[in-house]
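<context>
A single protein, sequence plus fold
<sample>
Here is the protein in question:
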Amino acid sequence: MMERSSRFISLSGLSGVFAGIFALLGATAAYLYFKVGFTFSSLDIYSHSYDATGNPEPGFFGFFLMDALSVLFASLIVGFLLTRRKAKKQGVAFWDRTSRRMVINLLIPLVTGGIFCLAMLYHHHIAFVAPATLIFYGLALLNAGKYTLDDIRQLGICEIILGLTACFNIGYGLFFWALGFGILHIIYGTVMYFKYERDLNNN
């Protein structure tokens, strides 16, 4: 009872699995778009970002914007539906003071990181955008983890470590995105499902 009043415990593990799958589909779309195959060392994605005069390539940024937004919205919609379903099965409120605090603490680092990444794009430092998104996402999970399951904090730490690793492997941004937002989410979601949801869904 105390945990339910202080923490939002209805996050769906299956939503993490779906988010990971959507992220991998988005990464696959990017590889197919650039027609470079899946040999990560051959992908010079940054040469497509700006033209010879230093101006952004509209096709490049337009594609990645649509790709990223598609993954984001699909993940949010599925996450919302599955988490609401889990909350209903648990007999707890889906949107209350605790869930609002969790979302606010999640959004503060996310919005900050988004603005920071836009600033890097503005100054043509695109090479560090992928690591920065992973780091700020990890910080957001770590911050929101105070108001939900501890597993979220562990995922956040893994995302931060992955982002820092990506800082020293510039040129493999899409690979680290797929690993962080794809594979890690699938692993996390699967663990969460078997740990918290399997018995609930069998009832």
About this structure: The mean pLDDT is 82. The radius of gyration is 18 Å.
